[in-house]
């Protein structure tokens, strides 16, 4: 959708998103394509996904690192694709954190959650999905500075949502004053200090804050 063409492998089946599908390691290697959008040269690198895979093996982390090097001096944004058709679990979050760990916490300043398959929300706001999914997706969003965007799979060729996505990316790049780089590589691969475990009370407080922020965007729940 970003490049408005079909250069990437689009052999897709909804069944591939089901929880019981074990082998979802496509593509097996990074794929890079270039194009133009609204007069701007755009490079898109697709990496092997962590979503719905078993524990990410070393080759996935190596390939993701390779994908970053394909965007020299570095990517302006790291889009973390999450289809709203499936649940985002605690294991999904742990796997993603493990995949990005070699880049240190600096990488999260350049990350944005890209929700896809938005048509399956049946015109309900994506904030509804965020509230319903609970802690795991909310923690991911918090790591990304609550940056996210929604794309509908049936709106291929419509430039409006892509323009909005690019505006969000421009705002992110402006805030970061540039792209993500792996400079100071010696420090990049140092072992990170273990994060403090949040208490139940802290989780409840953060969840309530998110609910209050998005409540205005939610439609009234139908009576059961």
Automatic annotation (TrEMBL):
<dbReference type="InterPro" id="IPR006703">
    <property type="entry name" value="G_AIG1"/>
</dbReference>
<dbReference type="InterPro" id="IPR027417">
    <property type="entry name" value="P-loop_NTPase"/>
</dbReference>
<dbReference type="InterPro" id="IPR045058">
    <property type="entry name" value="GIMA/IAN/Toc"/>
</dbReference>
<keyword id="KW-0547">Nucleotide-binding</keyword>
<keyword id="KW-0342">GTP-binding</keyword>
<protein>
    <recommendedName>
        <fullName>AIG1-type G domain-containing protein</fullName>
    </recommendedName>
</protein>
<feature type="domain" description="AIG1-type G">
    <location>
        <begin position="1"/>
        <end position="190"/>
    </location>
</feature>
<dbReference type="Pfam" id="PF04548">
    <property type="entry name" value="AIG1"/>
</dbReference>
<comment type="similarity">
    <text>Belongs to the TRAFAC class TrmE-Era-EngA-EngB-Septin-like GTPase superfamily. AIG1/Toc34/Toc159-like paraseptin GTPase family. IAN subfamily.</text>
</comment>
<dbReference type="GO" id="GO:0005525">
    <property type="term" value="F:GTP binding"/>
</dbReference>
